[in-house]
Fold this protein.
Amino acid sequence: MLQRSDISFDTDDTGRFLPWLIAFMVFLAALSISGLFVLSDITRNLGSEFSNKITVQIPVSRSLKTDGLRKTETLRLLRALTGVKRADPLSTEGVQELLKPWLGDAATLEQLPIPSVINVEIDRTKNISVKTLRAVLLPKIPDILVDDHREWLNYLANTIRSIEIIAFSIVLLVTLTTVGTVIFTTRTSMGLQRETINVLHVIGAHDHYIANQFAIRAAWLGVKGGMLGIIVSVPLLFGFRFVIASLGTHLMPEISLHAAGWVSVVLIVPTIAIIAMLTAYTTVLKSLASLP
Amino acid sequence: MNDIIRFENVGLRYGIGPEVLQDISFDLKPGSFHFLTGPSGAGKSSLLKIMYLALRPSRGLVYIFGHDISTLPRKNTLSLRRRIGVVFQEFRLLSHLSAFDNVALPLRVTGIREANVRKHVEELLVWVGLKDHMDARPPTLSGGQQQRVAIARAVIARPKLLFADEPTGNVDDQIAARIMHLFEELNKTGTTVVIATHNKAMTNGSGCPVMKLEGGLLKITGPMKKKLVSVRHKLGDDKKATIEF
Ligand SMILES: Nc1ncnc2c1ncn2[C@@H]1O[C@H](COP(=O)(O)OP(=O)(O)O)[C@@H](O)[C@H]1O
Ligand SMILES: [Mg+2]
């Protein structure tokens, strides 16, 4: 500690225990907060990428010729609609690529009948929706599938929201645990330092003067524990990223923590140090109020 | 009311125990010098604690520097504390701080500039003969040296009121006499002094009023007017006018 302290904290075991607890808290907070950033990133991407897209799928029929005709007809109908910005058939290779995660190499087999997929980009301001498309297409091609991923997106968004709530709860819990532990250790510490505190009080030390010394120490223990927690968390976060990246990008949206995320993770250290400092400060002030 | 301290029917009990102090009434005039005596356990330390604001009485009225401490807001007691110096019974030096830092404490808690702190503290430590022990921690000092650190800490901020709880308890007569001389010097500059002791040689014929505690009651004997006769002579010490330890 840089500042000379009137209170001897060297003999005080709370100084050994608190940094470890704070390190663990910072570790949990770092995982939760980076998780929150990644999730909100995914949600944002989902929203912007899918909200104007509708997929039209024409199931395979008995003959290749019919398949071709149905595709041409569908494209014509789609392109004639106001509100449809573009309608592009996905190439066979594209469809195969999409199916790969499910079918593996079998997806490339020649004899496998491949449904036609048309990507439609719509302009939602023109009062067009899946319903409109269905109304136009279904009478002509009864088994056609029109899908804007809404349901799946909603499901995904709900799942993400639940995970976000859990992550928030962890951050909240970490904060409360830190506050609770700092209150407890500060009280213990004050008990050990009773004699010194009484002397300081009698010789005319302001309560703030005494509280400051405990606050500075708590802040220092917070920084110490925080650094430890970060040193453990950051490599782990990099590790996660690597593992997820190596799983392949077919099923997973790209996951990465951007600058704001990293900054937030690093800011956990000063934040927890400040929380520890303020908690110790108020705890000491409260407890000193009982002195005559 | 120009009393520095005034007690009116003060009683004190610890918890549900018997009254340690009963119906204590007295007042101390500015610049007076009192001894406080009584057998061990009579309540000398308790009475001093009430006077230096470390303990609240169970009943009665206590005025310190003219303030009724029962109605004084807690935050206002700070300025009273800073006008009071205390030599505790067991010194209560902070063992991890040097002699210098211990003595500097009453100045530092007031937020005084560090340059001024250094000057005053060094001066006083030289004066009490601890020039070569400024950086020593209390546990490495002898009993007499610790005592002088404790006294220096009590007087560094030039208190208007000084309490010493058995300050000569564990030292030989010669050092006791020197310590008494220091208190006399301080008293001459206008500080009101109260010294708890059961050293008969010190109080007998000192010419100072003696407050005697017994069975929870207080009796004041001796001249009520300040009349200092140096106890130095009574203790058969040398007749040097300057303080030397
Ligand atoms: N903190 C305390 N709690 C309970 N009893 C106490 C406490 N301090 C002192 N006493 C009791 O009060 C009485 C007076 O003690 P004290 O003021 O220390 O006397 P003295 O200083 O004259 O020896 C003693 O009987 C002692 O046991
Ligand atoms: Mg005592």
